[in-house]
Amino acid sequence: MVAIPKMWEELRESSDFVYLHQSNPANHYLICFLKSITDIKVINEQILEFISTNTCLLFDELFEALPIAEKELSSDSNVIRDKLLLGYVAIQQVSSAQTILLNACLSKGRTVSKPEIEFNVEGSKEALVESIDTNLNLIRKRLPVASLRIKELHVGDISKSRVVICYIEDITNEQYIQTCLQRIGDIQFDTVTDITIIQQIIEDNSNSIFPQMLGTERTDRIVWGLTLGQVCILVDGSPNAILGPVTFEHFFTSYEDYFLPWIIGSVIRMIRLTSVMFSILASAVYVAVLTYHGHGISNAFLPTIIASRINVPFPPVVEVVIMELAIELLREAGARLPSKIGQTIGIVGGIVLGTAAVQASLTSNFLLIIVALSAMASFTTPVFRMSNTIRILRFPFILFAQMWGFLGIFLCSVIVVTHLLRLTSLGMPYLVPFYPLRLKSLTDTIIRPPYSKLHHRPQFYRTKNPVRFDKDKSNFKKDIDD
């Protein structure tokens, strides 16, 4: 084992390393820490001042008396080095290899702010931040129950990132917990800086464009998922969390649906699902109709379509691809530029390019309307990763429509559905409760039911406690004069 003083000498190559001697009549101490990641106020007021005012304490007595909550004794040079790199202060007695390790980590980061991706009109305005301790505080505050379990792991050969798994022991199925612990523990990657890296590694099928874990920045959605029986995973330095297992319909459900009356929430949810289908199929149907199925066009629309395409030199598929790529270009440019500039580029670019394309006879007015509506419909997807999937899915449907018309759209749909049938999330079927069919769990899918109907947790989670509340009592409303 490398001698501890020699290991300290190695760390002194960094300019933020502080090495102090503290002497008193009873002992002589060596104190070291990295000032860039430690709280100097804690070191001066709680550690150095305490040592200087308690000169008669022996080393073991000093360890017991130091007013620091997180502390430990160690003589292992590797443990001491790792703790120093995490923001600990090391106090070593010169005559011994035993070292006191005190947690004085300095945590700096932004304060809790509003959600930027999952924005909502009603409901909580608290979003996760980059500090994992702050995020755990937000979760604990909303779930003050003793059965909430937090398991911490360290992932990354270089980054040593803190990864936390949260679940409610009385509810969550043990299989999902052990699956997450095993997959995260088996990660072989040097640097883990964001939760999305964990998500891509531990998903059941990393080659699928469909996300199999639900990413969120909302603390209330995390708490809702934990009470349903899901597992939450957080990474220090990432302002997002992932929930699993999930089903396909979760990605088209906004948590804000539960803040609205159930009828309004159900209508909005159905509009959202219809918009997603329109976004995927609209351009493909346009190509199929104009290429193979022109006889199916109504006589009322036929003159309009002919007039809009009479000067367009390209076949429908080229026309569609040009417009779709232009929309994606505008979307990507708007996302990468600063917010105010990005909004301007999106609005001005869309108007200018659309008008110029029609005037130059590169596309038709009819297609311009379809592509614009399709782009707007794709924005209704509440989960960003699934929104990206919807954007990509349009192109294979357009290709199949060009080759075989409506038959091609049908074949592409079969391929996508077959892929979805084979997907799983932490071992749970991706299309449940539709396949395998779970009639009792169909309640909260396309329709958002009233809360009195949510008396049982979804059956497919296989929770330890499937009952949320007594359904008989929930339907009884007692007035004050009864």
UniProtKB/TrEMBL annotation:
Species of origin: Paenibacillus lignilyticus
UniProt keyword annotations, A-Z: Membrane, Transmembrane, Transmembrane helix
InterPro entries: Spore_Ger (IPR004995), UPF0353/GerABKA_families (IPR050768)
Protein name: Spore germination protein
Membrane keyword on record: yes
Bilayer-crossing regions: 273-292, 342-360, 366-385, 397-421
Entry-linked Pfam families: GerA (PF03323)
Similarity section: Belongs to the GerABKA family.
